[in-house]
Specification:
Number of helices: 15
Number of strands: 24
Shape: globular
Structural class: alpha/beta
Length: 448
């Protein structure tokens, strides 16, 4: 039987496909721009008749229809591996929760966990002549999900880019239970959080000074990393490589500026390696059928051993707050959940193990508190109660604000406090010094 014949046998309506979902099921909803669309609409119609359906997913780019039903808390829970703004709002409504895990561990979790995957439903690119549906820019952990799932529903979207890789970037028609041909909606876009601010650019200027020719880059999401990308694209840097968790628009700009060759990479030479991608249509167009870009599972991209194998690895990630002990909080503001652990710690550790590597945590020195209308410092004496420590004080390497970059590795507590305060906003430095003195991590000789 040909693959096309198998395809036709498994082709059903979205309503028929999701009718297999029953009360109490664990339902995997894909990842990022692979979250289902047509199946989501149909499932929202029957979900009010079900109870305790447990969904898994993450980085939602638009609000699913299942979130919009009456009283969702009575029928479902949403369990997120990494939260977007949409999911944060669902937390406040009582039906969404974060699942703390190092992102690199997800494939192993699925393969070894006793928790079932009763149904996996997600968007894919059209089947190729060899019978494979490509995950698009969402390889991440999806192969492991499919290995574990009792029922696999693929929703074909002609707009989904076909992202090349080499392993674990798709699922075969023989392993699929149902095929749904959706309405081919545009792929969900994720912006960079608005244009780079003057502070973003100032921080980026500090960071670019630390990047050598031939470096291998990892960038996080947000205005600041994108500002770094823009400056790199305009710089004299050359022969850069890419090995990252998330492929963002900035990489497209750097590549089109001719800065990325990957020729200095110790592994995957000439390839831009990533676990998933999210951005504007520009990014999806660039990734589509591009042999230079390598879609791979997160257990590979975020493996400390993979990162450490690449010389001059430069990891650049945002933070919410940093305290005077050097603890980095990137997931919450107190008990207010923001995102997730992601792969930040993996890259912080891996970059330091890289020959010539640097891990850089960046943040603006201050922010405007919308509730009080007052300017507040992001560098604080101690993290607020409930704040999650993403990187411990023993792990932090470089810290950059608009006031400079400091290398914190190996410093004693008084040296570290002095260095951190030196890149805080000047208006808060004296107060921070007094707090450091009260915590016995300050020497009078620090002031020179």
């Amino acid at each position: 039987m040909s693959y096309q014949e198998i395809y036709q046998q498994k082709l059903v309506s979205a309503a028929k496909a999701v009718s297999v979902i029953k009360s109490g099921d664990w339902v995997d909803y894909g990842w990022c721009c692979g979250t289902p669309d047509a199946c989501d609409k149909e499932l929202a119609k029957i979900l009010p008749n079900l109870e305790d359906v447990k969904f898994r997913g993450g980085i939602l780019l638009k609000e699913p229809e299942i979130f919009k039903i009456d009283n969702p808390v009575q029928h479902m829970t949403w369990n997120s591996w990494h939260m977007s703004g949409i999911e944060r709002k669902a937390v406040s409504k009582g039906f969404a929760f974060y699942s703390p895990i190092r992102y690199s561990e997800l494939p192993r979790y699925y393969r070894e966990s006793s928790d079932p995957v009763d149904v996996a439903v997600f968007q894919v690119s059209p089947m190729d002549k060899h019978g494979y549906f490509n995950f698009g820019p969402n390889a991440s952990h999806m192969a492991a999900v499919c290995e574990k799932a009792k029922v696999i529903i693929v929703e074909v979207n002609e707009n989904m880019p076909r992202c090349l890789g080499g392993f674990e970037e798709g699922v075969h028609v023989n392993d699929v239970t149902y095929i749904v041909e959706g309405t081919n909606p545009p792929i969900g876009e994720l912006g960079a959080g608005g244009p780079a601010t003057d502070v973003d650019i100032a921080v980026a200027q500090q960071i670019v000074k630390l990047i050598p020719d031939g470096a291998c880059l990892q960038l996080g999401i947000g205005g600041m990393p994108n500002a770094v990308g823009s400056l790199i694209a305009q710089s004299d840097l050359k022969n850069l490589g890419v090995h990252t968790e998330m492929y963002v628009d900035a990489f497209v700009d750097i590549a089109k500026a001719g800065k990325i060759t990957g020729l200095n990479k110790n592994i995957d030479k000439g390839r831009q390696v990533y676990a998933f991608g999210a951005g504007t249509q520009k990014l999806y167009d660039y990734l589509d059928n591009n042999p230079e870009c390598m879609s791979a599972p997160v257990s590979y991209t975020n493996d400390i051993r993979s990162i450490a194998a690449l010389d001059n690895f430069i990891s650049i990630n945002n933070a919410v707050n940093v305290d005077l002990f050097g603890q980095v909080s990137s997931e919450s503001a107190g008990v207010k959940h923001i995102s997730g652990a992601g792969g930040q710690l993996d890259f912080v550790l891996g970059a330091y193990l890289s020959n010539g590597g640097k891990s850089i945590i960046c943040l603006s020195s201050t922010f405007m508190n919308k509730k009080t209308g007052k300017l507040e410092s992001r560098i604080v004496p101690t993290l607020a109660n409930g704040s999650i420590v993403t990187d411990t004080r023993a792990n932090i390497h470089y810290l950059c604000t608009e006031y400079g970059c400091v290398n914190l590795k190996g410093l004693t507590t008084w040296q570290k406090a002095e260095a951190i305060i030196s890149v805080a906003h000047p208006d808060f430095r004296q107060e921070l010094i007094e707090q450091a003195q009260a915590m016995n991590i300050w020497k009078n000789s620090n002031l020179r």
